[in-house]
């Protein structure tokens, strides 16, 4: 894909960020897939690369919005789909190599969440309660894990449900709350067991 572009040279590749950094090769930009061999978090990978002074462009199939959001929120220069035409991918790499943001629909959606979903405006504490409760914890356990009282957890859950209802995205059941948490990127998209 980059062979015909004189400005681009692939200096190194590796199945994990740790192995890439261990190669002691001068790099201008890292093109990162969201799923690496070690199962590492995209957020942790981007943060590790940034700590090493390297900027990142995500190159992905974009099949998992949760992973995209993790990487985007960690501060990547942009996101480009593997399904894009070669010229589009090369233009994105060139822009990122120059330190410019690569603004695409995928990147914007990863930062803002799905533009088709109305924002509910949960506070950080409400997001914590939602993530724990929607992932299967009971309200009493959520209270212990967050240092809140069970009454406060139940109050938060009622407020969370009200906010989703006001946004036109009702969440009357625990399953509904789980779906909303996944849609908004507070919980990972479940993986198929055969992957």
From TrEMBL:
<dbReference type="Pfam" id="PF00196">
    <property type="entry name" value="GerE"/>
</dbReference>
<dbReference type="InterPro" id="IPR016032">
    <property type="entry name" value="Sig_transdc_resp-reg_C-effctor"/>
</dbReference>
<keyword id="KW-0238">DNA-binding</keyword>
<keyword id="KW-0614">Plasmid</keyword>
<feature type="domain" description="HTH luxR-type">
    <location>
        <begin position="136"/>
        <end position="163"/>
    </location>
</feature>
<dbReference type="InterPro" id="IPR000792">
    <property type="entry name" value="Tscrpt_reg_LuxR_C"/>
</dbReference>
<protein>
    <submittedName>
        <fullName>Response regulator transcription factor</fullName>
    </submittedName>
</protein>
<dbReference type="InterPro" id="IPR039420">
    <property type="entry name" value="WalR-like"/>
</dbReference>
<dbReference type="InterPro" id="IPR036388">
    <property type="entry name" value="WH-like_DNA-bd_sf"/>
</dbReference>
<dbReference type="InterPro" id="IPR011006">
    <property type="entry name" value="CheY-like_superfamily"/>
</dbReference>
